[in-house]
Design brief:
Chain lengths: ~425, ~425
């Protein structure tokens, strides 16, 4: 077994090499995709081992996340190929000036260097992360959850063969081999070796990384997303948007968890909501939504009484907390004290309220009259994403290739002194 | 005395107000400058109190940093006025797209919110920081060193009067009143209240903040800067550049601390260097440079034998560590293991060596044939600066107004669901 230190040493040596040319990085992405498909049998067999070992000890949702099949593997290969046409984030010149003293001063976008990722059980994250890291000229060190290790190990060997076929060193993408908690800690403390650490997974993992890391971290993904239905909202559209934001994929971080309703519209809106999200879904054989209601909404529709805790919870399930507010200002204040600053929406026909909400809500993505489910790198035109940053430093919202780059000032002179 | 918590609560309330219009922010900068000059007598009197209290307990260099006089105060006012013509960093649209589903998606630059700064004894940092914070639409909480507190307190009251004259709340800029260590810790732990914390001062302060902070921090300012004199360098220019980088202002972070010399040129270059930096400076009544020499350079010129520690030290003084290397690759490797990633230069006529150095040296600013002393917001065309970031995340090198901003995705829809 390679130690984590050996893997980091190899990664640092690799990052000290020149960044491969764009054509070579793109060639590597195509080869990595080919190799994944060539190795389908071995990858799916390893995944079966992971699944068998996990049955009984993890939830159904977790098992589904862990599962690979032909279709999902094809999706992973397609994801790698989709990176090829994206513009090169490396060597982009962001500023270019000539100083009074004749210095040529450029601000150039460059790779971070060694990008490490600690993630949980989804095997596709292995190839998604590897692809973004290769395209952006970085060197990757991946540390997956124990449950997915057999799958990830075969996938990484496959990706490494693709790298080699394109003339790149296989140590540009490495998988941590130590499966104990220690290797996660080693990555968090690897100051000077790890230039950027991205945790991707549940709130527990992310908080552990944020609290323990000594290397730079970008906090991702926890989403207690709010939708506020204003008194002037189009009620039919509002019901559709709320259903979409809650039910189209409740396990994602951009799903709605809390509904805020203007008191003037609550008596008209909440019965429509209850009918659509509970009764009609039940009739249609779809999972109905459990409504957790504050006191005011309990007086209007049936549902579970909400606790204060419900308004601080990322359910990731068919559960929606409902709170009636006096006006847009109270909605904004509620969001300020309960949100994880991921995505929030106002549904309104009142442009003053829309502007107020857009300006005052301090979240990565703020919507007027649309579902929060759109917060995604693909939907936002970034081509892909490596997670959703909920912090304000460096990257905010969906993180694409630029988020994996830093800058460097390059100055050409001819003997200038100050 | 206001508690730190009371000050932070007021700051958070203030950041929840809309960002003042550019004209009002600029008006505030002009008024703040006027008030500083109007209050000259009171400010200089407070500064005298600080100086008297500090005499005997701090160094001469520290006393000089603490000192205010008419000229320095005029410089502070001029610094505030110089921000007025700079373009507005707030509400700048960085991306603007229409999605296939008809969503109007914009990425807007917005203020961080509450920006806190922990700094040491230079009173001018108080007005510089306040000006940048106001121009960028943020709310500021300043915590200065105990030695400068009387000065800073009168300066902040003066700046607050300027804010009020422009119709802004005085709590947009507040000074922490608790002068114990506890208030620094309170700022570092103020998750949810402080959106960005900037430490500015010596390496000890910065490391303490980086290690203890739970809020986002940008690491600034420690500079172990290297200049490498390649075998093809123009020796006359090289001597000038090295003298400038070392001697023009040795207490700054962009001053050179380590000289690397190609072995082939060392016998010709080092005697020129010793003559200029030691003998000629002594004759001219200028402080001579103490050369701390590795074994190879000791064989060529007289000087103090260097210890390994000297190559890891930010002297901030007329001291230069000298190391002879085999070639540009060894110079790059030495920098990789000793640099603080601030500023490094290669002096060469060889374009291949220049390119290699520019690509491989992983520092905020990398120079060919110029002095490292140019690493500065004004010199780089940013108009001003709040320190030099030596980290890779968010901001790198001189930090101007953009470094005090984050982004927000703004999405306008008409009922879209995903």
């Amino acid at each position: 077994m390679k130690t984590t230190q050996e893997i980091l040493t190899a990664a640092v040596l690799e990052k000290q090499q020149p960044v491969p040319a764009l054509a070579q990085r793109n060639e590597a992405l195509m080869r990595m995709a080919d190799c994944l498909l060539e190795d389908q049998e071995a990858i799916l067999a390893a995944n079966q081992q992971d699944l068998h070992a996990a049955v009984g000890s993890v939830s159904e949702v977790m098992l589904d996340r862990l599962l690979l099949n032909e279709e999902r593997l094809a999706g992973m290969a397609a994801g790698l190929r989709a990176l090829v046409p994206l513009p090169d984030p490396v060597h982009r010149i962001l500023r270019d000036t000539q100083s009074e003293k004749g210095l040529h001063i450029q601000l150039e976008q460059v790779p971070f260097g060694v990008v490490a990722m600690i993630y949980e059980s989804r095997p596709n994250v292995t190839s998604d992360a590897a692809g973004l890291i290769i395209k952006s000229g970085n060197v990757g060190v991946l540390r997956c959850g124990r449950e997915a290790w057999q799958s990830a190990s075969v996938i990484v060997r496959s990706l490494q063969r693709g790298l080699q076929q394109a003339g790149l060193h296989q140590q540009r993408i490495q998988l941590i081999e130590d499966r104990t908690r220690q290797s996660s800690l080693d990555l968090m403390k690897a100051k000077g070796s790890v230039d950027l650490l991205l945790p991707r997974g549940g709130a527990g993992l992310i908080q552990a990384v944020v609290q323990n890391a000594e290397v730079p971290v970008i906090e991702t993904g926890t989403g207690i997303c709010h939708i506020f239905v204003d008194d002037s909202a189009d009620l039919q559209k509002a019901v559709q948007i709320v259903e979409n934001a809650k039910c189209s994929r409740p396990s994602t971080c951009n799903a709605e968890e809390v509904l805020l309703v203007h008191q003037a519209i609550a008596p008209a809106f909440l019965p429509l909501l209850q009918k659509r999200l509970v009764e009609e879904r039940r009739k249609a054989g779809q999972p109905p939504v459990e409504l957790r209601l504050d006191e005011a909404s309990q007086k209007i529709i049936p549902g579970t009484p909400a606790t204060e805790e419900d308004f601080h919870t990322e359910f990731l399930d068919y559960i929606l907390a409902v709170h009636v507010v006096a006006d847009v200002e109270e909605a904004i204040a509620h969001i300020a004290s309960h949100s994880t600053h991921h995505s929030e929406a106002i549904l309104t026909q009142n442009s003053r309220h829309a502007e107020l909400f857009l300006n005052q809500v301090d979240s990565a993505a703020v919507y007027v009259n649309a579902s929060t489910r759109f917060t995604d790198g693909g939907e936002f035109g970034l081509g892909c994403e490596l997670g959703i940053s909920t912090q304000k430093m460096h990257a905010r919202g969906p993180m694409g290739l630029d988020a994996l780059c830093t800058t460097k000032w390059i100055i050409h002179g001819s003997g200038q002194i100050r």
